[in-house]
Amino acid sequence: MQIEVHKKLPRKKIEVSEKLIKHLEEYRVVAKANLTGVRASQIQELRRKLREKVEFIVAKNTIFRKAAEKVNKENLINFANELKGPSLFLFTNISPFSLAILLNKSKVKVAAKGGDIATNDIIVPAGNTGLPPGPIISEFSKLKIPTKIESGSIWIASDTIAAKKGEVISVELASLLSRLGIKSIEAGLSIGLAYEDGKVFTMEDLLIDLEKVKEDLKLSVQQALSLAVNASYLTPETAPQILVKAHIQALALAVEAEYPEKEALLNALKLAYIRASALAEKANFRFEETKN
Fold this sequence. Notes:
By secondary structure, the protein is of the alpha+beta class. The protein has eleven helices and twelve strands.
């Protein structure tokens, strides 16, 4: 039996290595996903969702390094040497940034287990739990979750933060959250390291705040438009604003020059009245409006 096991292991490693080499040659991008805290069911679900875009291979880092040595790609060895911890390798032709966004959108809420780290503040909402009064009330008290009894059920008295982001979830809290039907852990794959066309990207490189990017783009467009209008640079977008600006400037010039044009004369009369009113106020003189 021992001899058979030893024969099978090398063959399996060879098969994985050959598959890694094939994928490294075929795909532009390879990413190492963090497996810590990830459940097998989540990986299977992601395989199903992303099968047309991403190939998944679980392999030891040592096997990946040996496979990388046989593939002639710039900086691939540097990427392989940076690998640490359990690895799930993702092969794709979409950019690492798009892959990171795709994985982030694929995250789901799952029930917490004792020892999990809270990915966000865990809030137990106020309201009817549907649970009958009994020994479980002491569990709420132990976890400092205020309760009251109404209509034969346990009610949460007020919204309560049961665990803050980054805190370890106790077995007791995980059990209570499960009974309340609260899925409190955001679970999914995240990229720890990625390689594309000779470039190596860290997790920090791939963290993009899409809302901030949108706001920055809006501001850049507004600033560019303002600059183009002030420089009288004609484009389909700036032409209307440039015409309005030119009209206002021409009208102001015509008013100052007392040019006999209908719109200019009306504005000139308004300006004259404003100036006369200001002068009269200084001289303590009141105009009387003439009535027809």
